[in-house]
Write a structure and sequence with these properties.
- 80% of the residues lie in helices and 0% in strands.
- The chain is mainly α and 127 residues long.
- It contains 3 helices and no strands.
- It has one domain.
């Protein structure tokens, strides 16, 4: 099956270049969005005088995780447009999914630990 010529495909150079340009344009658009989102978060934090520093930390962590996940997705997209055959596409997909599941699990654990600590700290009586 791996040697079956019907499974091999050749992506024309122009199509590959177009795909790479599209991914790069999407990356720039998302970078712009992330910059605007960070400014919005910063503005919200400055207007919420009663917000605790723990909430700010969670927001910053979440933004950092979002940036990391978006970056990982773009790296995956770049690898996909350079794939030589369907087997490579499938291997890349499997590798990406395994990596993202591990990353998301670690991120959820980190946020949960941080949120628990924040809740415990806020429950402590202030002296």
């Amino acid at each position: 099956m791996a040697n079956d010529p019907s499974w091999n495909f050749d992506v024309p150079t122009q199509m590959r270049q177009f795909a790479e340009q599209s991914v790069e344009q999407a990356r720039k658009a998302v970078d712009g969005f992330m910059t605007a989102a960070q400014k919005a978060v910063a503005t919200m934090e400055s207007h919420a005088d009663t917000a605790k520093s723990g909430a700010k930390d969670v927001g910053q962590k979440a933004m950092g995780f979002a940036e990391q996940n978006i970056s990982n997705s773009f790296e995956f997209a770049q690898k996909l447009v350079r794939a030589k055959d369907i087997q490579e596409v499938m291997a890349l997909q499997q590798e990406y999914l395994q990596s993202q599941m591990k990353t998301l699990s670690e991120q959820a654990k980190d946020l949960g630990t941080h949120a628990t600590k924040m809740a415990m700290d806020s429950a402590q009586p202030k002296t």
